[in-house]
Write a structure and sequence with these properties.
This protein is an alpha+beta fold. Among the domains are: 116 residues, Immunoglobulin-like; 31 residues. It is built from two helices and nine strands; from the N terminus they run H-E-E-E-E-E-E-E-E-E-H. A five-stranded mixed beta sheet has the order 2-9-8-4-6, with no helix packed on it. It has a four-stranded mixed beta sheet with strand order 1-3-7-5, with no helix packed on it. It starts with a helix and ends with a helix.
Amino acid sequence: MRLSRIIGSAVAMLAAAGAFAIAGTPAQAQPVPQPPYPPVPPALTVSDSTVEVGATFTVFGTGYGGNELVRLVFTAEPLAARAPGAQPARLNSGGVGAMAPVARQATTVYTDPTTITVRANPTGEFSVRVRFTRQLTVTITGTGLTTGRVASTTVTIVRPQPGLPVTGGETGSQLTLGATLLAVGVLLVLTAVVWRRRSRRTPARSRTRTRTLTPVG
């Protein structure tokens, strides 16, 4: 009996000591997510680097603070005169800004702006739609009012280029004229074929009449 009690007491003491040791062990701290290092630099891009006067384009911003207010400053300079014989600037149908990962594109269009303050989304992105009514070279600078991050880009506003010489109405007129000429040509060919057949039959009839009128004897 004494041996059993001794063994039972030893087991109880070991169990208590193990429980105390487990309870006294400090929990491991969970790792805190760290921001990317180095941080992604801010960037400003535009949907078109060369646009016509009065046309709307979009300014995209990325790499700013989440929900940060960003001030956009538009510095406009007169477009330099083109050298004699130089080709006009070609319109850019799309730029890298068109693929910027902005969640929602702005709907308001600002005309000839000088300063715009816009709030970035939680990932530090934004977009603004603007247009200018004169030929200009516009430098756009975006500054984060909290982080102080700065980025810039440039867009050229050019005079509207002349359209193509052939319009939709002129194309329809040309198609009508072509169909008319084709019909006239087919009619002339048919007329020539009929006239040729008749000309072949006329000598045979003349010979028949001549033989009939010739006296016998």
